[in-house]
Design goal:
Length: about 240
């Protein structure tokens, strides 16, 4: 695994709780004191029924929301009381997101969409940024399609652009929320293999939210949420694809 120690801790949750409508008669706690660690080598599925708290947890880990209690460490930094600008900068550099809907900018080419996170962080892309984006598009099988706009690409190709965009900042953590939910089985398998490739080669921890048991069974670890509690956290060390 290049550049990084496979056992480096990326995320640590300590007693993480999340409530809504705090201080009102309708206050409800959705996550109840979660403890969890993710390392760079981890390729984990997050599963659970609708309403179990998966989306809430993903938003907290992605620094899109703040916990009500407990702490979330990202690359060793406590984030709960971090000011917004610091959270935004850390999220932009350390986390890549892939969603069920690719959220590409329709007016931009594939290359421009991939460059977007770097442009937000640094302004006009440098030569190194351009080389990195071109390289990623090649690695996700889109060499020669850099100038196409999203409506000139298939659904699977658009999701590959979204994967390249998520990885262009070389994040320590990739959060994928039902990333293959809109794809046919062949495209879904190809996108999954891309996640596996970047987990192995770049030490990018992957946390994959999925309802598809065929997808979760291929992960090295399955974290099951039930009613806001982690019911089980199972490592499949016997998985031949685990790379461990």
């Amino acid at each position: 695994m290049s550049e990084h120690d496979a056992t480096q801790e990326v995320v640590r949750l300590q007693g993480l709780r999340k409530s809504y409508n705090v201080g009102t008669p309708t206050e409800v706690e959705v996550l109840h004191g979660l403890d969890l660690r993710l390392q760079r080598r981890d390729f984990a599925a997050l599963v659970g029924a609708s309403g179990s708290g998966k989306s809430t947890l993903l938003n907290l880990i992605g620094l899109l929301d703040r916990p009500t209690a407990g702490e979330l460490f990202l690359l060793g930094q406590p984030t709960r009381d971090m000011e917004d600008a610091g959270r935004t900068a850390l999220r932009g550099s350390a986390i890549g997101f892939v969603f069920q809907f690719h959220h590409l900018i329709q007016a931009f080419t594939a290359l421009e969409n991939v460059l977007m996170p770097l442009m937000v962080a640094h302004g006009k892309p440098t030569e190194e940024h351009l080389e990195r984006a071109h390289s990623l598009l090649g690695q996700v099988g889109l060499k020669g399609l850099e100038k196409r706009k999203p409506d000139q690409l298939s659904g699977g190709q658009q999701q590959r652009v979204a994967v390249a965009r998520a990885l262009v900042t070389r994040p320590a953590l990739l959060l994928a929320d039902e990333p293959t939910g809109n794809l046919d089985s062949k495209s879904a398998a190809e996108v999954f293999e891309l996640f596996r490739k970047f987990n192995r080669e770049f030490g990018c921890a992957v946390l994959l939210v999925t309802h598809d048991p065929r997808m979760s069974e291929q992960c090295d670890r399955t974290i099951t949420l039930v009613d806001g509690h982690i019911e089980s956290d199972t490592a499949l060390d016997s998985n031949p694809a685990s790379g461990r």
